[in-house]
Amino acid sequence: MAVFTPLDDAQVASFLERFDTGRLVTLEGVASGTENTTFFVTTDRASLVLTLFEQGDHEELPFFVDLLDYLDEHRLPVPGPVHDRRGIALQSLAGKPALLFPRLPGRHPRAPNLAQCRALGEALGRLHHVGQRFEGHRPNPRDLHWLLASHHKVLGYLTPEDQTLMADEVDTYQGVFGDADALPRGAIHGDLFRDNTLFDGDTLGGIIDFYNGCTGDLLFDLAIVINDWASDDDGRLDPGRHDALLTAYQSQRPLTDAERDAWPMMLRMTALRYWLSRLLVIYVDPPAHELTPHDPERFRLILKRRIAEGALPLPA
Known about the structure:
The protein is an alpha+beta fold. The chain has helices at about 10-15, 60-75, 115-130, 145-150, 160-175, 220-230, 240-250, 255-285, 295-310, and strands at about 25-30, 35-45, 45-50, 90-95, 95-100, 185-190, 195-200, 205, 215. The two termini are about 40 Å apart.
């Protein structure tokens, strides 16, 4: 979230006339983020978030709208898009696709505690449970096929040791997942880091930023969460946060035997997914705007920990 397309009060006041949300009181640009333009909008009746889409495939936006509508209808803590007086959510403003959302309460947890891990685990388990019935479809853009096609683009920027590490890992994943029986699939968030959640104390106010959402292995989504939420600064898994999150998750959707077998390797594959994607941003495909990219070293460290130490035992 950031401001790449400036808007003034008159533009937004006119935009709001399409909705039954009240009159504009204040407009505030949101400086953080990497891809889209975001404003906090306060009316005399509501607190809202306005997003203009700057990058990506705009043809995929209806998938995200339908997914958020579906999850909101199932009472998941997500920002269901605000629909205009004609029942349409996806709009255009300043020549960009635009969506209006309710502003959810809370802040990003920098160091999540056990209660917050339990809340997130339960919500993700519910999301995956109901998401298996979501009829929309978008292929996972960062799955094994992407790893196979993309990893060679960064090898020339790595040390010989890291070249071998990355190439060997991708070969291993292909051997493990390439011909394996299908794991449970459904709608996933695809990028559920701490900064894509909002907490008011220990209460989960919302799960946000679904623009990596897709149809994929549920275990892929869960492994992304564990690698971020339960990893210490040195990359090691914290048993307390790990067990709190996974126990709460399985209270809503127990893992299958096939998922339990695949779990250690899925942790490794999702760690490499972020190591690779961050390397690509630095060396191959920098963002359109001048922003500080995330450090790839974080997920190289996590990957090496998962290889050396394996996974913690899964809660029953």
